[in-house]
Design a protein that fits this description.
The structure is a homotetramer.
Chain A: E1 6-16, H1 19-28, E2 33-38, E3 41-45, E4 55-59, E5 64-72, H2 77-84, E6 90-94, E7 103-107, E8 113-117, E9 149-157, H3 160-171, E10 174-179, E11 188-192, E12 202-206, E13 215-221, H4 225-238, E14 242-248, E15 254-260, E16 266-272, E17 284-286, E18 301-302, E19 325-326
Parallel strand pairs in A: 1-4, 5-8, 9-12, 10-17, 13-16, 18-19
Antiparallel strand pairs in A: 1-5, 2-3, 3-4, 6-7, 7-8, 9-13, 10-11, 11-12, 14-15, 15-16
């Protein structure tokens, strides 16, 4: 029997200074469904998700991460994780929360509020969204970009190697790939919490500000590469500026685009990716020249892609030498 | 820690009465690479596979299954499985075989020769196929249909419920979906051996002949739905008759096509599928009217799709009432 | 200077016994925009069309063709056409109509009311639909199937060869392809009115009823093959039964699907097609075995596809021997 | 009857300092078929083309344009064109050449050798490439990028407005679109010679060198947007550096990529494009901010895209202020 402790990235809570606009954008333009509201928070999910929600939007002074919620692989895994997390990172237990049961709350070494739980509440579609397709929790709506599933979250860390080690030891993640300009220096790393086939459900980027608990972006998934292009059409027509993409990352063959939601946060829409079927596959280290960010090796990311949340004065030169960046088109 | 015993369908051995033609077809038309030959067998793999081979083609009097090879999730899992398999099904241990190490050999209750192992040999690309892309074991060739990974194997059983129970108990599989014309009667079932995200890596169909160890088809995967259509163009141009498809199954949203290789076996090419992220999701039972075989609910499979291997005189009326079949186009 | 008299299929008027439901379906599910209403008629167009409308929906007792509107290639072409049409087919001139100027009204030999004109009114987008993309008459909405352009109309004739000859002689069309089960017997024919690159903008099918002026279907176009599949998802989710498809016709490589609108008429959505660049290319005659209806040669159309409008008691045996039909899936 | 004098861009002759390598690349990597050799020239065509050839590769000291061949719309159009071309541009008549009959040879005002003819020789497939699909001149091979048709040629001019006027007056072209940074200053213009539906078959870019007869690139077409991405995979795997793309131009919605062939010339592969159905549609003028080069408005072309052939010392600052360029990724 093998060590798999988590089954999926269950949800991410984000803070928005314009919560109503954010909810409307995620609903109308991205195509999420709102399950419920509770206090200062709205709970949303993609049309293909069985869980109660995958996104929580909470009013806050700045765009930022609220917390990350992981579902374990089985009922006993929450306690196994609790036994592995250093006491100073544990914040306590909650008996239940909206959409799920008993949960361990902790902070990762880089300060990201994290919640781990097994018991979940399933989404119940209202009559007008019910379907007779057994594999779907609701009818397909085709609204907006019609994103289907939450995919991953990308957060900042000031100590890449330590954070990777922590995710492996405490949550049972596998380290799948890094961008490594020189040996021992990782500029970007991906990990997967679940068994196989997924390229990653969490990624780490440096935090030049030495801030804590910062967020680079959250990602939602559509089915086919061409759906990312259609999503881009929807975004273009809605007036949303697309920061980068559509394009393909070479590190995982994922077709991406990045856009900002009304609260200011970066949101990725993606599809595709190679299929990683071996639990013991070594992490794949990519030199910047091997096209990890630009599969066809003829693009550079705009500098603005390193803006993380909450926003800080980041010395951009910190990222010089990574070989991945160009000035933004408009700069 | 959760019960996951297998990481992937590693390979399938098929018997062909025309082995040279079969090897040439899998190589030139499907786009597999031949790794090596050994005795009466040729070993092939998709261009995206890190393992030594995923297909073994062995000379034999009739098209048939040779054996199925599963890789475990971790080093100790072979022995856990050995402890769970009823002694009368165990055939013994082998120290090593082409491309992998120590393996348990057994027969499933329905008679399918099966091999379970952990240690594997990785594929080494010859110089002309080497690539600097870290996530690829070899260069992309674009040859023929350019199938990338083995996907699943579909075998026959005369006792569906028992076979499902055996795979769950002995190999740790999850039962993901069935076509159930009436309660308790499953006409088609899918299971997955690995953690999540895959709709299935083995499927079961009835065997009206009450034969043992029979095979319906093997499946290889391409990246995008449109790649299945391109594969169909390649097949059409090569003169290969496409038995069914391209189309979409509603049971898993997989885009499929079925064709026969020169030895006579049925081969599926596919892409897509919904994403199953919950280890405790109940199997999804589909009534035939819910489109499990035809997502858009306006096609029926040709009768010939129930021909299994080795070929037998099958009373087709056994399948009447399943609601899934029409006469073949040419009949 | 070469003989091209028409530039495009400008619009089709259809009759609907449920006009409000028809308008709502074409708007919400197909994604057309309503330009205006006038008397018993609503005027609609695809989001990519510069003309005032491409579809007129008029209340009527039965689903049927109202009339077909062709735009000429230049200002003088209406009079050239008038000089070529046999006097008994001419119905007269109108000074103007909704969305266009002076027009010749006539009936084709098979009785289809037809209008030919040059002067047109361009669509003006309301403020909320305006765009700064110069090649677009309005913003992309992404609503429903989001069909972009009218593509063709398929009508019935009891005298195929004569009707083809008439279109060539009177309107300057080119005959591009036919399905010809035996020499001299065409079961299906396509013509194009415009110069090149289009496989057809009108098609002819037999009318076993010896009715006059009957219609088989109208077709709207989306950009990519995969957009037809997405349209099918939208239709499936809306509860609309898809009569045939998605699939590919071999006669022109067009990816099709056929569905019925609330008034009862058949509507095709399509994409793709080969590129016909030679004005002198001979019509391509397809034997039914060459896959004209089913590119991959493993499907037959359901019988219901020959139901035309207004509905009549059609002796289906008339179509036997064409080699193109199977019983409908549900029959 | 309307003024359409040309039916298609029939072929382009290019000069290559490495003709054997160029022929091999166009055959193996792009997937063209070689029809014949004659003297210093090889004649090739896409698998979907009925004409004898669409590309001539001739040995020469530098990568450069040999000549452009246009086919007229009808037999009398060659003489109409001859009567319209200023005598000083006419170079004379030839009775026949490889693959076509009597032709007028001329130079455009910007010095591009041009050939106009009606009579053509059709391609005859050798036995191994024959197909029973009536609309195909040969079997689909799937080799390399499998480009299907020649699409357009983009040439340089030092006097944009005059060159456009000449194409309209002499060859009957329509001016379809321009990039116009300020009124009266066109940086890039497209024209179409044929009736409708095509966005362009010739484009003009400035020539800062004030050279004559220079070429920016030739373009071949594949069917679907995703085929451009697959072509890019083929190119990446072959080691060919992709200069720009895959991406989408906003001026015509064409999905593009640009690569250099072994002789040094730039070759575009493309798919898609909006459908222009109106002969009287005014040219669409795009301000650089409207995304004519980058549909999603977040990319700039590399400077190298203005390198034209034969290569010259071009003062790049000439293009400053057009708003379309960024430094090349590697620069």
């Amino acid at each position: 029997m093998s060590e798999i402790l988590l089954s999926q990235l269950a949800h991410v809570e984000i803070m928005s200074p314009r919560p109503e606009e954010s909810v409307r954008w995620f609903t109308d333009v991205l195509g999420l469904e709102e399950t419920t509201r509770d206090g200062q928070s709205a709970y949303l999910r993609g049309w293909g998700e069985f869980l109660h929600h995958s996104l929580v939007i909470t009013e806050g002074p700045e765009p930022a991460l609220g917390h990350i919620g992981w579902r374990t692989y089985g009922p006993g895994d929450v306690d196994i994780i609790a036994s592995r997390v250093a006491p100073e990172l544990v914040e306590g237990w909650i008996d239940s929360s909206v959409g799920h049961g008993r949960a361990l709350r902790l902070r990762t070494p880089s300060g990201h509020p994290t919640e781990v739980f097994w018991e979940t509440e399933l989404y119940e579609a209202p009559p007008e969204l019910q379907t007779d397709m057994p594999l779907r929790p609701q009818r397909y709506t085709g609204r907006g970009a019609a994103v289907r599933y939450i995919d991953h979250v990308t957060v900042n860390t000031s100590s890449m190697a330590e954070e990777i080690a922590w995710y492996r030891a405490s949550l049972g993640d596998r380290h799948t790939a890094s961008i490594t300009p020189e040996p021992g220096v990782s500029f970007f790393s991906t990990l997967t919490s679940n068994a196989i086939r997924s390229t990653h459900d969490i990624a780490l980027v440096p935090d030049a500000s030495h801030g804590r608990g910062r967020l680079n972006h959250i990602a939602y998934r559509v089915d086919q590469k061409l759906d990312v292009e259609r999503a881009a059409d929807v975004l273009l027509s809605s007036g949303a500026p697309i920061e980068f993409g559509p394009g393909i990352h070479g590190i995982d063959e994922i077709t991406y685009l990045y856009v900002r939601e009304p609260g200011g946060l970066r949101v990725e829409l993606n599809a595709g990716g190679w299929q990683n079927s071996m639990p013991d596959l070594e992490p794949k280290h990519h030199h910047p020249d091997q096209g990890p960010m630009s599969y066809f090796r003829n693009l550079k990311m705009p500098d603005s892609m390193m803006d993380s949340f909450p926003p800080l004065d980041v010395a951009r030169e910190t990222f010089e030498g990574t070989g991945q960046f160009a000035d933004a088109p408009g700069s």
